Amino acid sequence: MLKDITIGQFFPGESPVHRIDPRVKIVLVIAMIVTLFLGAGPVSYGLFILFLLTVVHISKIPLKMVVRGLKPILFIVIFTAILNLFYTPGDTYIFEWGFLHISTAGVKTAILMVLRIMLLIVGTSMLTYTTSPIQLTDGLESLLSPLKKLHAPVHELSMMMSIALRFIPTLIEETDKIMAAQKARGADFESGSIVQRAKALVPILVPLFISAFRRADELATAMECRLYRGDVGRTRMRQLKVTRVDYAASAVCAAVFGAVIALGRFGL
């Protein structure tokens, strides 16, 4: 299961999606999230799915990798579907038993909520798949630069967010190694009650925290050795520039998002 978590991973490439300015990608992802919550029908969601599949194809990210990233949220998806299925009131009921009832509106709401969660994860994951941690840091810092007038630590916040995303795959790999070592010593993480399984995780969490603090200390030492002093006098090897690719991507996304919102207004 842990190996299926792909969020935070970066897949280098030269596709048009990779070449989009990180600032533009961040803004488009935020617009995508807003649009996703304004969609309200099968046609609008169908258009959104087609749009995301096209983005995945253009980025040349393997579709099975994208689908594999959905496995860790399978429990959340099923739990959300069950809640919406049984607790959404409606005029027509297709199943009733005690306090449990399923209406046609509940079925529709459950399907739309499942699609919404899955599309949300896929859309936001494409940001980290196609944007390196350095580009992500520079993009966030540039977008949040107006907050510098309020003396907000913009650079430090951007750096912390990008480092956190970057170390997600590293910590997952470390967790897999610790679990393999514990299983070799006879540990059992798959049987027993929920309480027993929770107790079995303690031998994993302790060395994982120790490893995380050790890596954080090593990273801090490496940054100090390279004379890192935040954004004071900081220069960049690659300057962020908005190109024709960014304008084209923004125009296409604006057209798709506008169509999704318009279809949602009519309930399609």
Overall form? flat
CA radius of gyration: 22 Å
H and E string: HHHHHEEHHHHHH
End-to-end separation = 36 Å
Q: Portion of residues in helices? A: 55-70%
What structural class do you assign from the helix and strand content? mainly alpha
Which stretches are poorly predicted, pLDDT < 50 over at least 5 residues? none
Tell me the number of helical segments per DSSP (H or I, 4 or more residues long): 11
Give me the side-by-side strand order of the main sheet.
1-2
Average pLDDT reading: 80
Could you tell me the number of beta strands? Answer: 2
Q: Quote the beta fraction.
A: under 5%
Summarize, please:
With 268 residues, the chain is mostly helical.
Task: Reconstruct the topology from this structure.
Layout: H1 16-19, H2 22-38, H3 42-59, H4 63-68, H5 74-86, E1 93-97, E2 100-103, H6 104-130, H7 133-143, H8 154-184, H9 194-200, H10 202-225, H11 244-265
Antiparallel strand pairs: 1-2
Helix pairs in contact: 2-6, 2-7, 2-11, 3-6, 3-11, 5-6, 7-8, 8-10
Search tags:
flat, 11 helices, mainly alpha, two-stranded antiparallel sheet, 268 residues, 2 strands, single chain
Description:
With 268 residues, this protein is mainly α. Helices cover 67% and strands 3% of the residues. It has 11 helices and 2 strands. The chain has helices spanning 16-19, 22-38, 42-59, 63-68, 74-86, 104-130, 133-143, 154-184, 194-200, 202-225, 244-265; strands at 93-97, 100-103. A two-stranded antiparallel sheet has the order 1-2.
